[in-house]
Amino acid sequence: RRVALGVWVLTLAHCTALTPPLRSPASRLRALEVAGEAVELYWFVKTESFCKPFPAVKPHLEAHRAWVAAQRSAGYPVTSGYRVDEEGRPGGGGLMLFRAVSHEAALEFVSHDPLVANGCVDYQVNQWIAEVG
Questions:
Q1: What homologous superfamily is domain 2-128 in, according to CATH?
Q2: How many CB atoms lie within 10 A of CB 22?
Q3: Hey, CA dihedral for 80, 85, 86, 88, is it positive or negative?
Q4: How far apart are CA 83 and CA 89, in angstroms?
Q5: Which residues contact 65 (CB under 8 A, 6 or more apart)?
Q6: By C-alpha distance, which of 72, 120, 70 is closest to 94?
Q7: Which of 11, 20, 44, 129 could be joined to 106 by an S-S link, Cβ 3.0–4.6 Å?
Q8: pTM of the predicted structure, to 2 decimals
Q9: For the YCII-related domain, which residue ranges apply (predicted)?
């Protein structure tokens, strides 16, 4: 499988997790070894809100879920979910946490999300720096 990280396309079979070992898709992958060189990965957050009516979004939402699942199955550190209002009703948009080598690489990664690629969401991507925990 291939994962786009900025200008590089890494074949996961040729990448070695440095710290900690990649034990599961949910592991906290901190760095990859690419061509014998350590590449640091940073956390990013994509927040989004639908910009099309839900019936137009629904088929792309299913494709989004499948895309995220495929990324996780390939060992890429990503998780995604939806926000709810104060009464627990969905419709508040979504949030995705993932790792990338740079902001440019994060934008490249997100561009392959079916919700983004099909213009279903207004979104923002920010690097996230853990302060505590």
A1: Dimeric alpha+beta barrel (3.30.70.1060)
A2: 18
A3: negative
A4: 8
A5: 80
A6: 120
A7: 44
A8: 0.71
A9: 57-128
Q: Is 21 exposed, middle or buried (0-12, 13-18, 19+ CB in 10 A)?
A: exposed
DSSP output for the chain: -EEEETTEEEEGGG-EE-SS---STTS---EEEETTEEEE-EEEEEEEEE-S-HHHHHHHHHHHHHHHHHHHHTT--EEEEEEE-TTS-EEEEEEEEEEESSHHHHHHHHTTSHHHHTT-EEEEEEEE-----
pLDDT digit string (tens) for the chain, length 133 residues: 344 443 333 333 333 332 333 333 333 445 565 566 778 899 999 999 999 998 999 999 999 999 999 999 998 899 999 998 888 888 778 999 999 999 999 999 999 999 999 999 999 999 999 888 6
